Prior knowledge:
It is built from 21 helices and no strands. The chain is mostly helical. Among the domains are: 3-67, lambda repressor-like DNA-binding domains (434 Repressor (Amino-terminal Domain), Orthogonal Bundle), CATH 1.10.260.40; 101-181, Serine Threonine Protein Phosphatase 5, Tetratricopeptide repeat (Alpha Horseshoe); 349-413, no CATH class. Helix 11 (183-199) runs antiparallel to helix 12 and helix 15 packs parallel to helix 17. It is elongated, with a radius of gyration of 30 Å. It starts with a helix and ends with a helix. Mean pLDDT is 83; it is low at 409-413.
Amino acid sequence: MNNSSLGERIKKARKESEMTQNDLARGIVTSSMICQIENGKAYPSYKVLAALADRLSRPIEYFVSDTETNVRQRSSFTLAKALMASGSYAKAYSLLKSMQDFGQGEADDFHMTLAKCCQEMGKYEEAIDMLDKLLTDTHGDLNQAFAIYLRLGEVAEHSGQYQLALYHWKKAYEMLDRITADPFDRAQLLTSIGNTYHRLGVYEEAVVYLQQAFEERKENVSLEDLGRMFLTLSLTYLDSNNFDQATLFSDRASAIFKSLNHLDLATEVKRSLAVLLAKQHGKIDEALAILDECTERYMKQEDRYNIGLTQLETAFVLQMAGETGTAVSLVRESLELISGDDLELARAHRLLADLYRAQRDLKDAIHHLSQSLNLYQKHGHSVGMMEAMNLSVSLYQEWEQFRQTTFEELITA
């Protein structure tokens, strides 16, 4: 129980005893002090509280027990937050679940924290149920609703529901003109929307929101965050075949990460630059050399996911060089390494379909194209679906030609 709750207990007991504030205060404290205590603006010493309890004919435990419980609650809550900050979400979750609910204002913070913990542990349904309940209890508080929509978007993104994440974040975006949002939250929201549009292949929208995020953050953003933003813009322009802008933002990101000696992000920039060299300038050997360096670095770090992504990009460059056999082997190896990322898996299956098509292995090509289409459809990736559908038309035409040719050969024989 906080000061305000203690004050409410004292006020309730005073009224039940039919006393005024002057009656209760006389000879102990001033009546204005009683007023402050009852309103939660002051906290009585133990001696004063004991005297007030005696006058109100109540045991001191009536006022103190819940207060001591609240001290324990607050201590446990602080510890749970520290555990979450250290990545010990399972321990934090157990501690939070063992705690009693706070009062209304503090309960919101408690449940938002517990929802974040559930999100990090993959308990998405529990997190969503908690946040949905909070949303219905906002009673028109737009700032609270904004914070809840931000968190709902994060939960949806973590669970791979990118369209749902966009839905929640766009709800928050619609509130920006009606609330006083923290500049960091505004920029984070715009960045999240931009990144998700990029992930879904809606590149024009991605650039719009990422540019807005850049304008929001450029005054106060850290160099590392600025580099990340440039990197995302570079990848977005690269995917939309705007090579000049992709090169511009890649160079900016690379310069920042080198100055910060941030090797992980610098390697990611190098990987995107390698693809750019191959696509725009046809420098296949140089691109492959850079990708080999990236793979070597990720192998030293035992970073399986980034090894898989780099193998995927290497296979793409090898396809440009006509080395389909080696490219197929690399993509097949990458499937297990990137298995947790549906959209990268969709890209890998689509590339495999294209490679098998080049090898005239139409049956395997159709199989992998079907896998790609299912994954793109699952996440509403319209651009990926369109590209896969275009490939499917060509594949099925070739399949019909293959069957017709085979049939004619059998008849001739």
